[in-house]
Design goal:
The protein is α+β, with helices and mostly antiparallel strands. The protein has helices at residues 2-56, 64-71, 99-109, 126-193, 199-220, 231-245, 267-285, 315-318, 336-347, and strands spanning 78-81, 87-91, 112-115, 118-122, 227-230, 250-255, 262-265, 289-297, 301-308, 351-358, 362-370. Strand 8 and strand 9 (301-308) form a beta hairpin.
């Protein structure tokens, strides 16, 4: 859980940093745009006065300064409208086909200066418009950065988890291999010495069970090749195993089709998945209740549902049940469901999720497996 908490903290810090950067950028840009807008307003007032001076000039008036001011405006779009609504002049406008509608939009926005009988209409310069849009572009860049950073963190987390799974699985299979082999030899020796002992067959089953567990761990560490296998048999094996190892107060119920449902899978690993779900159900019911296994053969997929009458899962915890390290038990590593998810989704290209859960009534896990995968 420490690694998960650390990832969550880093994500929160990145989001907070992105919000701070975005807000600061918007505020700074807002003040800059406001100041530049005021400056452009002053420039247009000077330009309008120069236009008025030009209109009022006679033959003796020196127009060099007036013309210099008017020619100095190379960025701000300007339209001069007369008292009758006609266009007397315009500057810094490339498209003159819609100039009248452009003037009306300027008047509607209130960007006008009245000089005598003329109305000087103006718009923001291209530079001011770009500056207004820049914070939103910057905000998009920051968001993209945050998304990429979070994705990189999650990818790093998954890669580290994969290494842990492979290392743990291989080491577990290796450690179990030698004592299991010794136990198998001892069982064979005991069979020869005590052929009529009733306990030896049960001991043999347990040793074979250990061998199966070691085999499963060795397959987790690699990529097992799926083959055609009967899903009916897998579920029957699980029910038989759970019946012999759970309390008589736990009732196992099955709903299986009459025909064999064949799926490409690694039967040993998939059996482990269903066992994990059933064991979690037994723990949730505290040794008393019922577990229902349902197998549905649909057109393009096979569906398995494991339903229990346990204590249920809180809504806030449903999203975390497959997270490594997450557990509601006093004892447990929180690896069972994460391993089940890996087996179903990575090895069999299926899906596993909590279909529904209600506190005090139970939980239903659903597995969907593609046909012919």
């Amino acid at each position: 859980m420490q690694w998960t908490d650390r990832i969550r903290q880093v994500k929160i810090i990145l989001v907070i940093a992105a919000v701070i950067i975005a807000v600061a950028s918007l505020l700074v840009s807002h003040f800059l745009v406001r100041d530049l807008s005021v400056e452009e307003r002053h420039r247009m007032e000077v330009w309008a006065q120069a236009l008025h001076a030009l209109n009022e000039a006679d033959e003796t008036t020196d127009l060099s300064l007036v013309l210099s001011v008017m020619e100095g405006n190379n960025t701000i779009p300007v339209i001069v409208v007369n008292s009758e609504g006609g266009i007397d002049d315009y500057r810094n406008i490339d498209d003159s086909t819609h100039i009248e509608s452009y003037a009306r939009s300027m008047i509607k926005a209130g960007d006008t200066i009245r000089i005598g009988q003329q109305l000087v209409c103006y718009d923001e310069s291209i530079m001011l418009k770009r500056l207004s849009a820049w914070p939103y572009v910057q905000l998009g860049i920051v968001l993209i950065f945050v998304v990429v950073a979070i994705f990189a963190l999650l990818s790093s987390k998954r890669a580290e988890q994969n290494k842990v799974w492979v290392g743990l699985s291989k080491e577990t299979a290796h450690q179990l291999g030698t004592p299991v082999s010794s136990l198998m030899a001892w069982v064979e020796m005991l069979k020869e010495q005590y052929p009529d002992d009733d306990l030896l067959p049960e001991m043999d089953k347990d040793v074979k069970r250990l061998q199966l567990i070691a085999d499963r761990f060795s397959k987790i560490g690699s990529l097992p090749e799926p083959v055609d296998a009967s899903m009916n048999e897998v579920l029957e094996h699980v029910i038989d195993y759970m019946d012999r190892r759970t309390s008589s107060h736990v009732q196992m119920t099955r709903h299986l089709p009459d025909h064999e449902v064949i799926v490409k899978m690694n039967a040993s690993l998939f059996e482990w998945v269903v066992e994990n779900l059933c064991k979690n159900a037994v723990d949730a019911m505290e040794g008393k209740g019922s577990i229902t296994l349902t197998l549905m053969d649909e057109e393009h997929r096979v569906v398995i549902e494991v339903q229990d009458t346990g204590k249920g899962i809180k809504k806030k915890d449903i999203a975390n049940v497959f997270t490594p390290g997450f557990t509601t038990k006093k004892r447990g590593w929180g690896l069972g469901l994460s391993l089940a998810k890996r087996i179903v989704e990575e090895y069999h290209k299926g899906r596993i999720f909590v279909k529904q859960s209600e506190i005090g009534k139970g939980t239903t896990f659903r597995i969907e497996m593609p046909k012919g995968s």
